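User: Here's a chain of 270 residues. Predict its fold as tokens.
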Amino acid sequence: MSVLKTICLAFSMYSRVPMPQLMYTEKDMRYVFLGFPLIGVVIGILEMGWYILCEKLGIGNLFYASVASAIPFFVTGGFHMDGFLDTTDALSSYGSQEKKFTILKDSHVGAFAVIWTGVYLVLNVGAYSEIHSSLAGSGNKMNIMTCVSFIYILSRITSGLAAVTFPSATGKGAEKSSLAGFKKMSAKIVVRTGLLIYLLATFGILTALHQVIGIAMLIALAAVFWYYYKMSQKQFGGITGDLAGWYLQVCEQVLLYIVVLGGYALGIGA
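Assistant: Prediction complete.
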């Protein structure tokens, strides 16, 4: 029952998937990050289902790509994109650390947040459109689409790892975030071990599906994860919930383009 409660808690916090109303204890919250990647499983299944439906009905690239880009937002309610907006605004200020924290806490949306979110969504639609067109007639289409589906799992596995491993922001102007609170309550050793097992299993499947793209995704994921650590330390003195949302969105975009570029390099659609 405790496992089910932990999963329900993760979905209640980080998605809009309806969950039963349960009484949660601190014990349930200790393992919430182990349930976090399961939201990525739901998104991945929906992405795969939408692709198969479009193949069956002959739906064109643009409509496919638009809905494929929107599916994560339907599932999460834009929860992580909110962090992307706030963090992008703060980074674009080039101000002091205190000013950046002030921007993170500001409920208003700044111009840079709007601009970069527009760029993000255009790039996302473009990537999905290219994937859809390059896979037409390809014998590898289901393997490659499975790789795409796993992107949403990988971003959440590594986001959870960062949440229980990276230092939380404590600089001037920083407020104690809910992420710091969950980190304090988490059974860190168990959560890290579990997430690392998820990660190894996921990459085992990815390399079995397509060795080159699987390895390329691993390298790109490691690079984004390292950049997230360095950026958060330099700019904010640690991570916050907003930065976690920024990381998740950037991670998914980078991995999506790794699949696109891998398709070009390997001539998957040829």
